[in-house]
Amino acid sequence: MKRFVRDNAIGLVFGLLFLIVLIGQAFAGLAVFNEMQRGTGLPDVSFWRYVTSASFGADVAENWQSEYLQFFLFIMLTVWLLQKGSPESKALDKPGRETDEEQKIGRFADDDSPKWARTGGWRTRIFSSSLGLVMGLIFLGSWFAQSVAGVAAFNEEQLSELQDPVSWGQYLLAADFWDRTLQNWQSELLAVASMAILAIYLRQRGSSQSKPVGAPHDATGVEG
User: Based on the number of CB atoms within 10 Å of its own CB, is 104 exposed (0-12), middle (13-18) or buried (19 or more)?
Assistant: First the structure.
């Protein structure tokens, strides 16, 4: 058990933190939601009623889609884009998808390489892009979920104010949907750019996201 925890510590710790923060968000969101309910003369809702509501679903989904957009863009764009001196970049002489030999594909695969890296054909082509594909699909799925939950939450508010509800298509063009979307996108893009650039000049000893402390500022694609 100790070895399992050590070997999977990143996934376990971040998974646990995710659950703690999600539960904390649910309780904080419930307090805010019920405060708004009382302000409009409506009764409080239960915890279970809130976490299954469109309001909570929209709040969660809009954060998920922006995070997966960040990963999808970073994974795909760093195939070709470089940043001199950053450990978040590949070496400056390796832009693009690289050769089969460099990627250990087909006849260049090692004995312990994944099966789909060795077989060639469509399996290797899919496996070669599987990380970006899955991240992109999760982004699209969570963005769709945001739009569905968002229009339901928006229409609840419209009806409470005695205004006409809108269709899903109308909501996709509404300011509320794009305000929720763009405020998350800009923060994620800023975070990625900050990490790539600050890691050129700053260090964190022992971190895989940092260069070795003594590495020169212009060392690129080097991790400590």
Answer: middle
